[in-house]
Amino acid sequence: MPVSEDRQKFVYDFTEGNKDLKDLLGGKGANLAEMTNLGLPVPPGFTITTEACKVYLEGGTEPSSMRDEVTAHLEALERHMGKKLGQADDPLLVSVRSGAKFSMPGMMDTVLNIGLSDESVTGLAAQAGDERFAWDSYRRLIQMFGRTVLGVDGDLFEEALEEAKRAKGVTTDVDLDAGDLKHLVEEFKAIVSKETGRDFPQAPREQMDLAIRAVFDSWNGDRAKLYRRQERIPGDLGTAVNICSMVFGNLGPDSGTGVAFTRDPASGHQGVYGDYLQNAQGEDVVAGIRNTMQLAELEQLDKASYDQLMQIMETLETHYKDLCDIEFTIERGKLWMLQTRVGKRTAGAAFRIATQLVDQGLIDEAEALQRVTGAQLAQLMFPRFDEKAQTELLGRGIAASPGAAVGKAVFDSYTAVKWSRSGEKVILIRRETNPDDLDGMIASEGILTSRGGKTSHAAVVARGMGKTCVCGAEELEVDTKQRRMTAPGGVVIQEGDVVSIDGSTGKVYLGEVPVVPSPVVEYFEGRMHAGADDADELVQAVHRMMAYADRTRRLRVRANADNAEDAARARRFGAQGIGLCRTEHMFLGERREMVERLILADTDAEREEALGALLPLQKADFVELFEAMDGLPVTVRLLDPPLHEFLPDITELSVRVALAEAREDANENDLRLLQAVHKLHEQNPMLGLRGVRLGLVIPGLFAMQVRAIAEAAAERIGRQGDPRAEIMIPLVGTVQELEIVREEAERVIADVEAASGTDLTLPLGTMIELPRAALTADQIAEAAEFFSFGTNDLTQTVWGFSRDDVEASFFTAYLEKGIFGVSPFETIDRDGVGSLVRAAAKAGRATRPDLKLGVCGEHGGDPESVHFFHEVGLDYVSCSPFRIPVARLEAGRAAALNGSSSDSR
């Protein structure tokens, strides 16, 4: 909806906001305000709101009152600082920085040193007593402004800078003197003039206004949109803009800039973690262009600033009650705080930190559950490298984001994306990454850089995405132009060679290193218990969080399992029953021939003989399944797919028959099969003869399956077992279908009870997987004792999508264009499919208050979807065995976050 400008305030001083105004001030602005309120040393400034950005993006121009508000706040800032923006003798300089509600590191634009010009640079030099510093700041402004505001190719500036260093015979920026930098400024201005057709703007206010618009525009930049899709950040939030008075870390050896964490974002361990760079501005640290020193070394350089920083870090962590990520600058011995935010962390760190904070009394268990996610738990279940394997170590860097990643070496993002789309697993290798590498980082199994530390762009983004990352592997020489990497000893890795990187140790190996199961999986399998080493410490943290979740959750979690082996694994993973047993899987393999006999039967006797042959096999399957799940519910879905799926492929069979006829030795059975295949062939089989329709059209089919279930249950009871079978009828669209099948099933169950002398409790229910079933749920509930939402088919029929086709044909385009934030087959479409689920649940329970409700589609293991099912009031979700821990955790998180929803039972 359009943003109204009426009586809106679009600019806030840092003294006016607080950390709870992230929607309005963005995360950076809200936290700068919060630190200001806490009395921490924050450079004065003000924030332009996200609402102003929305107005700009909707209409292409700033709100009419915004310029006057900016002017008023700028004048107040100038009075406070005792200098004016860009004045000649002692200029006030400011940074213009983006800051959305959710952290998007490096994805939007920032410009430093606004206010410098040909005139004011000499004033800055005089005021600072350092001519080199002034000209270095000016060249940085032109470089950043030219790239982010004027759209000049950043490589042109980089090439000029590299040429200046080559001409001087030096390797780092800090080795260039004032004269070198003065010459570089003229080169940079010439680049701007040539590429844009205009001179670099000299008016300070024009610089600031253009930078503000550039930050607004960067919200819809390609890399920002790609990052939002990856992280599922809504596209309509907009970004705030923070105008902050400049403090300088590049004023000499007593100055510098750094990034600090209150705990290790990779492991969660407490200690002193971060990077510091002397005589540098902030972008030097995160860009990774110069290797940093560890934060602990700052104590030897500047103990007063170090001690003050440690105290501030403790204050912030206690205040925010979480790991904090901090950016700071030291200007000639004075510490300034430039940013804080709740820091991104690895999956393992998230679980460790959550339990640590509970033990420290900073948060309770309910809050701890909100600090971890099912997606993080899934990451912890990935395999790791086998420590006993024979390996060839290439080098070692900084363990920036854990995991075991193997792939072919690629040296640019374009190749990473191209090869990945061709099915190749790749490792993106760069000297350092920048925001333009995002698409390649997403496409890669892992990222390796020879520069940068735990706070570099590569490390921060990789941790946010859950990607394996090793940074700062200085001993590895990366040559992106020649597409190769050279390791100590002269080992050369060419593009396409396989490498393995360990984000937990920082080690880089040649070739493919074997992997072993994660200790977290071993814990869920019951093969590992909490102990003292690091892996066991993680297991202990996971164990505690799972215990919190299980005590808290209302939703029960079942498994989709079709055999005793899967059922036993699911039970070890914490399943509370089976929500979907697909009986069609029992018709495959050696039994396919029996199914063919059923399909080819011409008479009732032949059909009954074929069903009779299948009955004992089905019964034996169910006996094993009920034994594995003894005492827990097992929902058995009767045959669902079209019968043609159990017959040979029509093309292969046609060729076989044609060749046989040419040889005049055609097989009579093949001829009958081909006739049956043609008879059963459908243009759209998923909307054809399947599910309940099969049970109604093929006499005795469903009766055989019900008898197998009933006899298996009776046998288990006779052996002192506790089978809790439930019979589910698929693809029902009208209550009449269900009533007919139910009558037949009840007759069969009664017959088995009489024959076995056993009382059986076998609830009959249905899958709700057609829109009509959802819309007539009140009627269907009259004949159903439970509903299980088949959200895979429901999504297909609501959207009119064929899942097997559309995901490969146009889903990529839909995701790129923002039509989908995420595939509706991955996360439930709340507005469409979800509204039918909600309506059917309400209508079904209006008819039958004790109606049991579950879901057995793939959405049952999706974290976001689990929260929706909790809100709707379902009784359980069902998912594949390996997703059960994720569903358990998310069910606990949903309950802790929402409490019991209004329509829960």
From TrEMBL:
EC number: 2.7.9.1
Protein name: Pyruvate, phosphate dikinase
Cofactor: Mg(2+)
Signal peptide: none
Entry annotation: catalytic residues: H457 (tele-phosphohistidine intermediate), C856 (proton donor)
InterPro entries: ATP_grasp_subdomain_1, PEP-util_enz_mobile_dom, PEP_util_AS, PEP_util_C, Phosphohistidine_dom_sf, PPDK_AMP/ATP-bd, Pyruvate_phosphate_dikinase, Pyrv/PenolPyrv_kinase-like_dom
Keywords attached to this entry: ATP-binding, Kinase, Magnesium, Metal-binding, Nucleotide-binding, Pyruvate, Transferase
Catalytic reaction(s) noted: pyruvate + phosphate + ATP = phosphoenolpyruvate + AMP + diphosphate + H(+)
A GO MF label: metal ion binding
Annotated Mg(2+) binding sites: E769, D793
Family: Belongs to the PEP-utilizing enzyme family.
UniProt cross-references to PANTHER family, sorted A to Z: PHOSPHOENOLPYRUVATE DIKINASE-RELATED, PYRUVATE, PHOSPHATE DIKINASE 1, CHLOROPLASTIC
Domain PEP-utilising enzyme mobile residues, every copy: 424-506
Domain Pyruvate phosphate dikinase AMP/ATP-binding: 23-58, 64-291, 297-348
Pfam families on file: PEP-utilizers, PEP-utilizers_C, PPDK_N
UniProt: substrate binding residues: R582, R637, E769, G790, T791, N792, D793
PEP-utilising enzyme C-terminal domain span: 540-891
